[in-house]
From TrEMBL:
This is AraC family transcriptional regulator. InterPro entries: AraC-bd, AraC_XylS_family_regulators, Homeodomain-like_sf, HTH-like, HTH_AraC, HTH_AraC-typ_CS, RmlC-like_jellyroll. It comes from Candidatus Blautia merdavium. Keywords: Activator, DNA-binding, Transcription, Transcription regulation. PANTHER family: HTH-TYPE TRANSCRIPTIONAL ACTIVATOR RHAS-RELATED, TRANSCRIPTIONAL REGULATORY PROTEIN. GO terms for molecular function: DNA-binding transcription factor activity; sequence-specific DNA binding. PROSITE patterns: HTH_ARAC_FAMILY_1, HTH_ARAC_FAMILY_2. It holds the Pfam family AraC_binding. Residues 170-267 form the HTH araC/xylS-type domain.
Amino acid sequence: MKKEIKTAVFDEELRIEAYRFEGTSQPFPNHFHEYYVIGFVERGQRYLLCRDREYSIHPGDVLLFQPGENHGCAQTGEETLDYRGLNITKEVMEKLAKEITGQPKLPGFSHSVIRDEEINGCLHALHESIMKGSSEFDKEEQLYQLLSLLMQRYGQPFCQGIPECGQEIARACRFMEEHYRERIFLDQICREAGLSKSTLLRAFTRTKGVTPYCYLQNIRIGAARKLLEQGTAPVEAALRTGFFDQSHFTNYFNRFIGLSPGAYREIFQKKTEEAGGEDNGK
């Protein structure tokens, strides 16, 4: 039997707890929490009772438990449970809901179990960012994107209009282009643009086709490419373009360019060496 592992991380910036139960076979009796629980099943199958309704939950399912909502579950099948979740207090959720909907009201969800690939992907990315201790503001984007989708599709209706905010988005872009070498926070971009986080994220994505964080990383990668082409060492290129973690830089460079920073630099080193050899031959 797979060893049971339970891990939990509290993110001080988001004020959210992320946890993972891996290899769990124990049943959980009927109980409730005073906070919101948003989780997803990675492996295993369970029988779930919630809101007086029975569910058979499987990998890929997203679970939504509201404060005070009774629920209990037990294993079905041979495979143990790999479950990952987020705990969000009512105080934090109320602030987030106000940012997203404009109304300082706690959201309710129409479903306890949903199967939504986009929401599952957002939840998985956010959970991973918190568990890894990410200090980048993409985790805020992931949180707002996740809750916006949940409230739009499974919560109380709210205004879904996305404002153009052309001048505001231009100010946000200019700020990132001028400060990409520094550590930037989402709050700074919002202040520069004069928009709330929720409005900025929605308007920016509609206007640019990417999130602010992705836009910032594109700027940084572009600057890093120029440095690498000039022979700058990857570690120095990372530091000079705002990447304070080498693995973070390498992962993004690979994703955007398809090569590691070192391999990309070698291409231009070889060109320089070849050009030098030709000159000597003349």
